[in-house]
Every structure is written in structure tokens, then in C-alpha cells.
Amino acid sequence: MEDSEGLELYKERGDKLVNVLISTINRSGKLDRKILADMEESYGKVSDDRERYRCLVKGYRALRLALIESGSSPEAQMVKGKESNAKMGYYWHFGPRPLALWSWLTGPNGLKHFGLLWFSLVFFIFPLLYGLGDFVTSSGPISRPWDYVYFSICTATTLVYGDIVPNGLGKLIAVVEGLFSYFGLGFLFWTLMERFNEEI
User: Which domain holds residue 52?
Assistant: First the structure.
């Protein structure tokens, strides 16, 4: 019974602080960091992890929308980062896990995260897969590892010259890498447009 009362008490206090923050934003166009810290502390004391994450996501979303309406883009981006981290924590603990990855990629540092993921896959993971099974053939000798990296870059960027070609299981790996590149570039442009629209 104590836990239930505590949960409701901290939720209620956090919700009140969200409303205070929104009214402050509507009046001044600014986010009061002290009240924000108090709100986070109140929700942080909610004993149920699932409910805590939900409260944080809901609170951050309301604040972010209020900041966007008031024209305070830098502070809205900061709150969006907190919202993204709360979403990622929720999906990581309570599933589905792919949505945790999606939150990681679409957060304020999403472009950096996407760049890191793309670089790792194209320059390390896919070349390693091609090399492990010797899944590519060439008219000349293949000097490891650079030829595998070169083939991986050509596949990811769709610059197929024909000097190195996949064989066997390598064909499937090349198709997967090509699809990843198509969807990845689409996602990159979508993220850039979202960022641009938020700044207007």
C-alpha cells in the first residue's frame, strides 16, 4: 500500500511540475532548469520502472511541444534528447528492442550514431563477412583486407565496377548490404529533413 501511495504522490507532483513548466514557457518562452530538475527527481522516485519511463516520456514530449510553439528551438532539442533517452530506456527494458535502436538513431545525436553504424558496417563488418568465407572473386589476386573493404564500399554506394564480384553466399551478403545502404540513405535524408523542419 505504501508503494502505491508513493507512486501516486510522486507522479502527481511530477505532473504538477510539468504544468508549471509549460505555463512558464508560455509566459517567458524559456525553460526553467531548476523546475525541470525537480520534475525529473519526482518522476525518478516512482517505484515502478515502466510507469517512471512513461511519465518521463510524456512530460518531456509536452515540454518539447511547448518549447517549439514558443520558438525556443535549442531548448526543444535539449528536451528532445532527454525524451529520446527515456524512450530508449523504456524500449530496452520492456521491448520491443528494435524500437530502442530506432530511438538511439532518431535522437539528437542520431546522425552521429547513424554515421558510426554505417562506418562500422561498411568498413569492418561486411568486409569481414566477405573475407571469412572468401565470398568474392576477382580477375586479379585479392590482397586482404583492402580489396574486401573496396568491394564493400562499392556495394554500399552502388558503384559496381565489375573487377570484384560476389560468389556463393557472398551474393546474399551483397544484397543485404545494398538494401541496408538504400534504406540507410533514405533514413539519413529523412532525419535531415526532420531536423530542418524543427529549426524553422
Answer: 2-106
